[in-house]
Design a protein that fits this description.
single chain; about 220 residues; mainly alpha; 2 domains; about 5% strand
């Protein structure tokens, strides 16, 4: 049996349509939807996705990390609060357009955006597939965060401020913890999403800040 085209060590037991070659089971599991943009028709992707989503949804922060995230007072910092608005805005827009959207899908979208911020790596893609993100809502959250800039009330020579990677991750981790806490055991409901919709309804003057960019 031929060797895996990725690691070159283990036996290649699976055909990867994205790479157009055979790879081993371990490389398939490690690289799937991380460095490889898997096409929807891949049978290994279909088998893997429910298990992976279950792991993401059930993943818990360590008690210490959870305390640190909960203690991070983002709401008291105008700059970080504006980044939080840009995280939640795509969720609110998608939820209003799609009444069937659930808290489960919102959490998976937030995790997707967090992973992209963490990795910062491009995936191997099939021709014609680059315009089809695996998670449209997650991609919208990621793009909104990535494009977010903060404009201070007093114009300084530095102009618009960009956000560092650790600041983006702080806000995304906090929002994931909030989503899981609010939705509790009812991930198929919309308690968390409705909370966002209600909060945006109370915001009077978002137009003073720059336009929020989401994926159409």
């Amino acid at each position: 049996m031929a060797k895996c085209k990725k690691c070159g060590r283990r036996k290649a037991k699976r055909h990867c349509p994205a790479l157009g070659s055979d790879i081993c089971n371990l490389c398939c599991g490690i690289l799937r939807e991380k460095e490889i943009h898997c096409p929807p028709q891949c049978s290994y992707l279909a088998q893997h996705r429910p298990y992976q989503e279950k792991r993401i949804l059930e993943k818990k922060e360590t008690p210490r990390s959870r305390r640190e995230i909960a203690k991070d007072d983002i709401a008291s910092d105008d700059r970080m609060r504006w980044l939080l608005v840009n995280v939640e805005a795509p969720l609110k827009e998608f939820a209003e357009r799609n009444p069937a959207l659930t808290d489960r899908e919102a959490i998976l979208a937030l995790e997707y955006a967090k992973e992209k911020v963490e990795k910062g790596r491009s995936r191997l893609i099939l021709p014609g597939e680059d315009h089809k993100p695996k998670n449209r809502l997650g991609e919208a959250v990621y793009k909104s965060v990535d494009n977010c800039r903060y404009e201070r009330p007093i114009i300084l020579t530095s102009g618009l401020e960009i956000y560092k990677q650790d600041e983006k991750l702080r806000v995304l981790r906090r929002e994931i913890l909030t989503a899981k806490t609010v939705s509790e055991d009812n991930l198929e409901g919309r308690t968390y999403l409705q909370q966002i919709i209600d909060r945006f309804a109370k915001i009077k003057d978002l137009s003073q800040q720059q336009k929020i960019i989401t994926l159409e």
